[in-house]
Amino acid sequence: xxxxxxxxxxxxxxxxxxxxxxxxxxxxxxxxxxxxxxxxxxxxxxxxxxxxxxxxxxxxxxxxxxxxxxxxxxxxxxxxxxxxxxxxxxxxxxxxxxxxxxxxxxxxxxxxxxxxxxxxxxxxxxxxxxxxxxxxxxxxxxxxxxxxxxxxxxxxxxxxxxxxxxxxxxxxxxxxxxxxxxxxxxxxxxxxxxxxxxxxxxxxxxxxxxxxxxxxxxxxxxxx
Length: 224
Hints:
Layout: E1 13-17, H1 24-37, E2 41-45, H2 49-56, E3 62-67, H3 77-90, E4 94-98, H4 101-105, H5 109-120, E5 126-129, H6 137-150, E6 154-156, H7 168-177, E7 183-187, H8 193-201, E8 206-209, H9 212-216
Parallel strand pairs: 1-2, 1-8, 2-3, 3-4, 4-5, 5-6, 6-7, 7-8
Helix pairs in contact: 1-2, 3-5, 5-6
């Protein structure tokens, strides 16, 4: 991957716009940017999924959203499952989810797994934000195992750069433990092409970032 030009990174990038106060015009522009630059997906908040789905209809760009995020592990499992079904109804093709780290750390492994299963039941690929820096070594192993058992399509190192700046060490950790058919997405503070290449070289199949345009044009910008 290291020999490629920045523009070659676009198919691996999930172009992300999830922040408070985003307007309809900004969301539409975001979707159009995803098409213009050839990104893998446009990632938006659930309230804008239907708008983005209409904008991306007939293109190769996927519609992605996130739930129980940016504050992770605060929704009920029933609420999360219902929201996942609603997002799919509105046009979401992939869903990234926060998980119940508190349940995991409390030893309630069955509830942790069922929480993920409820979202998987919506019928689209689910990417599980594992928040690796918040877990002990043993908890990390259990979290990966439970996420895989629950049907996760992707394992993610973290939900945002506030938890962890995505790095090759965390990505390799997940890649080494992901069984066949389960992929890894890197997330958190990804701001430039060099960093993106390193994550892909470590085994990430996708990267999620709000700095996608800067990355593919060889620039740098703040990511959230």
